[in-house]
Amino acid sequence: MPQHLGLVALVVREHDEAIAFYVEKLGFTLTEDTYQPAQDKRWVVVSPPGSKGCSLLLARATSEDQRSRVGNQTGHRVFLFLYTDDFWRDFNAFKANGVEFVREPKVEDHGTVAVFQDLYGNQWDLIQPGRGTSARGV
Hints:
This protein is an alpha/beta fold. It contains three helices and eight strands, in the order E-H-E-E-E-H-E-H-E-E-E.
């Protein structure tokens, strides 16, 4: 059986504020929000529009150690890569929704890219692959 990544856990402070950011500002879809009574927690999954690939599990921090990593899961380097078929459509929509870009758009050999931050400071690449490249090849 082929393998693939299904979910990436993103540690968040609170579910509802994270859902609001990802759904309202980035246009993601809330694909699951289920209470897990045995563990007394919510299972919250969001996905980019039209995605058939990996989704984000919004995992609420429950310990001081986890809370210390909210917004800094990778030492402030770009953590996640959001591929798009129309860079300028998404860049302009994100800016209009108040998303903070920390690196302005740049055309590189591998595509058009800009870096934005989520509500906690995690850095993301917004990228439209260039001709002859793919999400896997970058």
